[in-house]
Design goal:
Blueprint (H helix, E strand, L loop, with lengths): L1 H31 L9 H22 L16 H26 L15 H20 L10
Helix pairs in contact: 1-2, 1-3, 2-3, 2-4, 3-4
């Protein structure tokens, strides 16, 4: 349990930063290309897709046993719902704490953020919610029942 908790914090922090940098680069590139201003939804789509990837990689990495402890997918284990719940609740708490922190230093101060995370509140919320989506999917995916007699 503690191992899953610590792995979740570590992997979520790493993937938040990695995909935030990728998102900033993507938003800048789409801001300077010839079709600039073609869609206000484009930055939301960028942050949504990157959040899905960050959440999916985090949940699969954090719940996975360390190397050498088996090659099976951890979501097939008997304790998979418990691990998925730990990953989801830890991520929810961490993202909630980050949102409160960003609200205190950015959003409530009237800082003009364009479409970058964490400067822009709506884009950051989109990013954070989309990170939690794959975790919920893993948490609520029904597990197949073992067949009786073969």
């Amino acid at each position: 349990m503690i191992r899953t908790f610590l792995r979740t914090i570590m992997f979520l922090a790493v993937w938040l930063i990695v995909f935030d940098v990728i998102g900033v680069i993507a938003c800048v590139i789409f801001d300077v290309v010839p079709f600039r201003g073609s869609s206000g939804a484009l930055p939301y789509a960028i942050w949504f897709v990157l959040g899905i990837f960050a959440g999916g990689i985090t949940v699969m990495s954090a719940g996975d046993p360390p190397a050498g402890e088996g090659d099976d997918d951890w979501t097939d284990d008997a304790d998979a719902p418990r691990k998925a719940a730990i990953v989801f609740l830890t991520s929810l708490a961490m993202l909630g704490a980050l949102a409160a922190f960003f609200n205190h230093i950015y959003w409530s101060q009237g800082v003009e953020g364009e479409y970058f995370v964490p400067d822009s509140m709506p884009h950051t919320i989109t990013y954070f919610v989309s990170i939690l989506a794959p975790m919920l999917l893993v948490l609520f995916t029904p597990k197949p029942r073992p067949s009786r007699g073969a």
